[in-house]
């Protein structure tokens, strides 16, 4: 995907959310390797009841989980590491986090 296509795609999305929690080593590892942390909303489901409820209502039962919040709702993404890069595969799109 070209940078222009990535920019257009990201503008169409309302929000990238990283559901994480205190005492989660995998969450800490993901956060440590984020390339663009300013565009990702990091929420702690162990401390914020509203985000814990949002996660549960959207079948997000494990952390860390990345999701995309759009006008159509929340969609879970597949989170993966490639070297020191964290990526989220959301449908047929892949986003470098």
Question: Secondary-structure blueprint of this entry?
Answer:
Layout: H1 3-12, E1 15-20, H2 25-32, E2 40-44, H3 49-57, E3 65-70, E4 73-82, E5 85-90, E6 93-96
Parallel strand pairs: 1-2
Antiparallel strand pairs: 1-3, 3-4, 4-5, 5-6
Verbal overview:
The protein has 97 residues and is α+β, with helices and mostly antiparallel strands. It has a single domain (3-96), classed as 3-Layer(aba) Sandwich (Glutaredoxin). Helices cover 28% and strands 38% of the residues. The chain contains 3 helices and 6 strands. Strands 2-1-3-4-5-6 form a 6-stranded mixed beta sheet, sandwiched between helices. The longest helix has 10 residues, at 3-12. It starts with a helix and ends with a strand.
Short description:
By secondary structure, the protein is an alpha+beta fold. Helices cover 28% and strands 38% of the residues.
Number of domains: 1
CATH fold category name: Glutaredoxin
* The CATH fourth-level homologous superfamily: Glutaredoxin
- The N- and C-terminal alpha carbons lie at a distance of 14 Å
Q: Could you name the ranges where pLDDT drops below 50 across 5 or more consecutive residues? A: none
Notable traits:
alpha+beta, 97 residues, globular, 6 strands, 6-stranded mixed β-sheet, Glutaredoxin
